[in-house]
Design brief:
The chain has 161 residues and is mainly beta. It has one helix at residues 18-36, and strands spanning 6-9, 12-14, 44-51, 54-55, 58-65, 68-75, 78-82, 87-95, 113-116, 119-122, 145-148, 152-154, 157-159. A hairpin with a 2-residue loop joins strand 9 (113-116) and strand 10.
Length: 161
C-alpha cells in the first residue's frame, strides 16, 4: 500500500489527491444540476379585479378550463394564478363578503374591540372593496371567458353589474 493512502471505507483506499478531485466533481455536478431545475412557475397570469371600475380588494379568482381548476386570493385588488389551464378559460370571482353560492351576502363579521392605551377601540379590518354579482361565482352562469396562452401574462378582470 502507498504510504499516502487514506482509508475510505473498510478495505477501500484513496490517495490524498482523490478527495480534492471528488470535491471538484461534486461541485461541478451541483452547479450544473442547480441550473437545470425550473425556478418558479412557467405559466403565470396576474392582473387586477374590478367591478364597474371599482376595485374588488378581497376575495377569490378561479380559472376553470377542461378538467383543471386553479384559484388565487384577491389581495388589494390583484391576483396571481400559477400554472393555469391553457386555452379557453371560464373565470369565477367571489368577493370576500359573498356567500360561496352567490345567493346572498354572507353575514358581516363583528368588528372586535381591542384594548389600547386610550381604552377600547375597534380593530381596523381591511376594506373588502365592492362585491361582484352572484353570476360570476358559478361556472354555469359566469359570462367571463378569457384565452390563456401560456408564459407570463397580465390579464385584467373587469366585471360589470
Amino acid at each position: 500500500m502507498c504510504r499516502f493512502a487514506i482509508p475510505l471505507i473498510r478495505g477501500v483506499f484513496l490517495s490524498r489527491r482523490a478527495p480534492r478531485h471528488l470535491l471538484v466533481v461534486c461541485l461541478a455536478f451541483l452547479v450544473v444540476a442547480s441550473g437545470c431545475t425550473p425556478k418558479g412557475a412557467r405559466n403565470v397570469v396576474t392582473g387586477t379585479v374590478k367591478l364597474d371600475g371599482q376595485s374588488i380588494n378581497m376575495g377569490t379568482v378561479t380559472f376553470v378550463g377542461g378538467d383543471k381548476q386553479v384559484s388565487s386570493p384577491i389581495v388589494n385588488g390583484s391576483y396571481r394564478i400559477e400554472e393555469p389551464p391553457i386555452g379557453q378559460v371560464t373565470v369565477l370571482v367571489i368577493g370576500a363578503t359573498n356567500s360561496p353560492t352567490g345567493d346572498k351576502p354572507a353575514e358581516q363579521p363583528k368588528i372586535p374591540k381591542i384594548k389600547g392605551p386610550a381604552g377600547d377601540m375597534p380593530m381596523d379590518l381591511p376594506d373588502a372593496g365592492v362585491n361582484p354579482p352572484a353570476k360570476y361565482s358559478k361556472k354555469e352562469t359566469s359570462p367571463l371567458k378569457i384565452e390563456v396562452k401560456g408564459g407570463k401574462e397580465t390579464i385584467p378582470i373587469d366585471l360589470t353589474k
